[in-house]
Specification:
The protein contains 4 helices and 9 strands. It has 182 residues and is of the alpha+beta class. β5 and β6 (122-124) form a beta hairpin. It starts with a helix and ends in a 30-residue tail after the last strand.
């Protein structure tokens, strides 16, 4: 399962190399995060499957936890959330995103991704009210950070070949207070 996650991240444009060994790397594997002092202090001996560096200069991270059965999705999400919250307890770093991945090559995979906004509210990443069930490229995560909202109204940042691809003809605006769309 883990090579599948790493390969999926690569297809989405992430440099799947260890940032401690490759200055352009974005992805720490289990236990590799200890090369980063802030992550080491925050996580201690705890080890998410992956910690992805979303924004190196602002120290924004995405934790990914994986389990081998679809039945364990809630467990994977809860563990990924716990890791993100530990990162958030550290100074000058933000565990802004977390994803639980569950499944196997035989049964397929489920993925749920959440965003922790600047007020500490956890929300599932969604488009038009529906959860996005694929891993996401950096551009989409940066869009979420900029808007400080897990609700996406424009998915043009997704790359071809990802599990969720939508090519809008025009940008959709957020719902107004009356519930209508512009």
């Amino acid at each position: 399962m883990y090579p599948d996650i790493r390969d999926n991240l690569r297809r989405l444009g992430w440099n799947a190399n260890n940032p401690a060994k490759d200055p352009q790397g974005d992805v720490y594997n289990q236990h590799e995060h200890s090369a980063d002092d802030g992550l080491k202090r925050a996580l201690g001996m705890k080890a998410p499957e992956f910690v992805v560096v979303v924004d190196k200069s602002k120290r924004v991270f995405w934790t990914i936890e994986a389990k081998g059965s679809m039945k364990e999705l809630d467990l994977a999400v809860n563990e990924a959330r716990d890791y993100a919250e530990l990162i958030n307890k550290g100074a000058k770093q933000h565990g802004a995103f977390y994803t639980g991945v569950a499944g196997s090559p035989d049964e397929g995979y489920l993925r749920h991704t959440y965003y922790i906004d600047h007020d500490g509210v956890h929300s599932q990443v969604e488009y038009d009210g529906s959860p996005i069930t694929s891993l996401l490229p950096r551009e989409t995560l940066l869009q979420i950070l900029k808007s400080d909202s897990a609700s996406l109204y424009d998915l043009r940042t997704l790359r071809p070949g990802t599990l969720v691809v939508w090519e809008p003809t025009k940008t959709r605006a957020p719902a107004s207070s009356t519930g209508s769309r512009r």
